[in-house]
Design a protein that fits this description.
With 239 residues, this protein is mainly β. It has three helices and 15 strands.
Length: 239
């Protein structure tokens, strides 16, 4: 897979930045406050299409486990900065956040399905993180780095720049279509205290998957009207 250059996080790309956006808010306790393995929640697009979002956490290089939702991690400034519900800091693994290391690589997989459980490829706009800091990474002195994998390229890394209590980071995913997103820490020798929470995914409401196809019966009816109009114009008036 192609590895894009590391991107600086910015608080400018919040959910309010985009029009026609559907936000999958993992800080919303009404949807994601009860961890499961996996957990599935339904959403409805502006066009009226219902689809499913499935979250699965993994630990120890591939073993499924419950994700975590830490309500105690919510901060008063979170909603103003991110535009999210901020009942917690998003999705983590096991005892807290998504972390890594050669013996315990953790990850969160988010998959999208239609109502009949077929994979659904959607157009991404934005991926948001919390607890991704500029100074809590390797050796507790370097920037933390989150890695995002899609089921089709690209793969990208998002570097924390925040030094406040939020650790908010935002990745502009415009132009990326995928049915799966995986968030993890790369398996490198020295991950130190590197960890983060997956806070939200913003989907483009204009995704082809959300477009309502014209019913065949309406199309045939329209063709019939056109044919009737044409034949009427061709008919000569009676003498």
């Amino acid at each position: 897979m192609k590895l894009l250059p590391t991107l600086a996080a910015t608080a400018l790309l919040t959910t309010s930045f985009y029009s026609n956006a559907l936000v999958i808010d993992f800080t919303d306790s009404t949807k994601w406050g009860t961890p499961a393995s996996p957990q599935t929640q339904s959403y409805t697009s502006a066009s009226g299409m219902t689809f499913n979002v499935q979250v699965q956490a993994f630990r120890n290089n591939g073993n499924p486990t419950n994700y975590t939702f830490n309500a105690g991690e919510a901060h008063s400034s979170c909603m103003a900065v991110t535009g999210l519900a901020c009942n917690g800091d998003g999705l983590g693994v096991r005892n807290d956040e998504i972390s890594g290391g050669s013996n315990n690589l953790q990850k969160i997989e988010v998959r999208f399905f239609d109502e009949t459980n077929n994979p659904l490829s959607l157009d991404f706009l934005n991926v948001q993180f919390l607890d991704l800091f500029a100074n809590e990474g390797q050796n507790n002195s370097q920037a933390e780095v989150a890695t995002i994998l899609f089921d089709t390229p690209p793969t990208t890394s998002v570097t924390g720049t925040a030094t406040d209590r939020l650790g908010f980071a935002s990745y502009d995913a415009s132009g990326t279509s995928s049915s799966t997103l995986t968030a993890l820490v790369l398996d490198i020798a020295d991950t130190g205290f590197m960890d983060f929470s997956l806070a939200a995914i913003t989907i483009d409401e204009g995704s082809d998957a959300f477009k309502v196809a014209e019913p065949a019966s309406l199309a045939l009816f329209g063709l019939g009207l056109l044919g009737f109009g044409y034949s009427s114009r061709q008919r000569k008036p009676n003498a």
